[in-house]
Amino acid sequence: MAPSSRMNYGWVVVAVGALMTCVGFGTMMSLAVFLQPMSETMGWSHAGISGAATLDFLAMALAAFFWGTMSDRFGTRIVVLSGAILLAIGLIAASRAQTLWQFQLCFGVLVGIAAGSFYAPMMAIASAWIEKQRSLAVALVSAGMGVAPVTIAPTASWLITTYDWRTAMLVIGIGAAVLLIPASLLVRPAPQESGGTAATNTAEAGQTEWTAAQALRTPQFVTLALAHFACCAAHSGPIFHMVSYAMVCGIAPLTAVTVYSLAGLSGLGGRLLLGTLADRIGAKPVLVGGLLVQALSIATYLAVARLGEFYALSVVFGIAYGGVMPLYAVLVREFFGARIMGTVFGAVSAFASLGMALGPWAGGYVFDTFHGYAWLHAGSFAIGLAAVAVALSFPSTRRRPLDLGRATA
After folding, report:
1. Where residue 209 falls among pLDDT bands split at 50, 70, 90?
2. How many angstroms separate the CA atoms of 409 and 126, rounded?
3. How does pLDDT run across 301-357, given as a tens digit for each residue?
4. What confidence score (pLDDT) does residue 257 get?
5. Average pLDDT value for residue range 236-256
6. Is residue 1 a contact partner of residue 13, using CB atoms and an 8 Å limit?
7. Is 130 left (phi over 0), alpha (psi -120 to 50) or beta?
8. Which end of the chain is less congested by CB atoms within 10 angstroms, N or C?
9. How many CA atoms are closer than 13 Å to the CA of 213, on its beta-carbon side?
10. E strand map for 78-146
11. Shortest CA distance to 301 belongs to which of 229, 210, 389, 381?
């Protein structure tokens, strides 16, 4: 494939990845919009419904490593196609659930497993297609998560208001199938290059001849995994309970959704901004700075109560948490190489999903116990500072497996 054709189709793959992360992650996080209506209609507790989101991320954590390994072995197309079908099944089944445990099983397990098939595999293949603007490419794939709050969440809110929560979830499940199944067929493996670029890639591979077993035993992998875990554990609760918190502060339901949507839109801008900065000055300093802003933003939730304050904080918080998310993939690619990226980033994403699992449940528990969210935001702020400390310890330059072996001998 000619270089220009490679670049052109590479951006098609990036666009498909953005769509998949938008629909996959967006359907999961739309549960924040369903939370209050479902609780009122079904009589289920906030903690019980939020527990489905916790199960989502636990299931995603267990599935992410599996999906990443499968994409390395069998290709990304079959992985994302399987995920698209499973996502639709999970959403449609959840819309028919009659008991809380049925809903938790369908939405919390099936949807979580399905959503895990999109993020790590599509981030890996996008980084393989796009070389010179790799940080921007993976940022755009991740940007789908930022688009979700301004597309899926308002759609779900409108459907719930117009019909009911069951109809809304059913329509979203059918829409997921219509969008993602055809899109998965557009995914192709990155072609092997020839000439000078191939020589460059060969030389790079020679410097980073990692096996998955070697990579997963290194302190560098552990550092990235722990940083991603703490990062997601810090922001998942404030994000998931953002709509409910705004409503507790007296903001109308549809207006509260716009607060969440603005944070997501800002996250899209943050991904583009921090991705571009990472291409210029490096992923690590941008990651550390973004994590610090994220922690400070979470702490600020303790002091906001008015709509204008919520909007202003949503912009800053969204830029921070959205912008840091794709940088972990860049660091995995730079340190461990392309050949095992699906496996290694899948494992890192598994830890991130475990972190994401804490927030929804913790927020529901805090609200049911204390009838407010102050302790959620205080705890999330502390975890956010821990993420900054861990990220600071990651090395700025990669080293060969042999070098690491000598250093630890």
Report:
1. low
2. 36
3. 999 989 999 999 999 999 999 889 888 988 888 888 777 777 888 888 888 888 887
4. 81
5. 87
6. no
7. beta
8. C
9. 0
10. none
11. 381
**Length of the chain, in residues:** 409
Q: What share of the chain is helix, strand, coil (3-state, %, to 5)?
A: 85, 0, 15
Residues 6+ apart with CB under 8 A from 358: 54, 233, 236, 237
Nearest residue to 279 via CA among 315, 271, 314: 271
Asked if 236 and 359 touch (Cβ cutoff 8 Å), the reply is yes
**In a 10 Å sphere around its CB, with 0-12 CB exposed, 13-18 middle and 19+ buried, how is residue 339 labelled?**
middle
DSSP H helical segments within 282-395, as ranges? 283-300, 307-324, 327-336, 341-370, 374-392
Q: How far is CA 204 from the centre of its chain?
A: 28
Mean per-residue pLDDT, 69-79 = 86
In contact, 49 and 38? CB cutoff 8 Å = yes
Q: Is the pLDDT of residue 397 over 80?
A: no
Is-contact 65 44, C-beta < 8 A?
no
Q: State the average pLDDT for the chain.
A: 84
Report the alpha-carbon distance of residue 105 to residue 102 in Å, rounded: 5
Tell me which residue has tokens 């995914």. Answer: 187
Question: pLDDT confidence of 268, banded at 50, 70, 90?
Answer: confident
Average of pLDDT values for 209-234?
Answer: 87
How many angstroms separate the CA atoms of 93 and 388, rounded? 40
Contacts of 345 (CB under 8 A, 6+ apart): 68, 120, 123, 124, 328, 329, 332, 333
DSSP tag of 241: T
In the numeric block, the tokens 């940022």 are attached to: 139
Contact 329, 228 (CB under 8 A): no
Considering only CA atoms, give the Rg of the chain: 20
Query: What CA–CA distances, in Å, run from 348 to 86, 103, 215, 322, 345?
Result: 23, 28, 11, 17, 5
Q: Higher-confidence residue: 143 or 274?
A: 274
Q: How many helices (H) and strands (E) does the chain have?
A: 20, 0
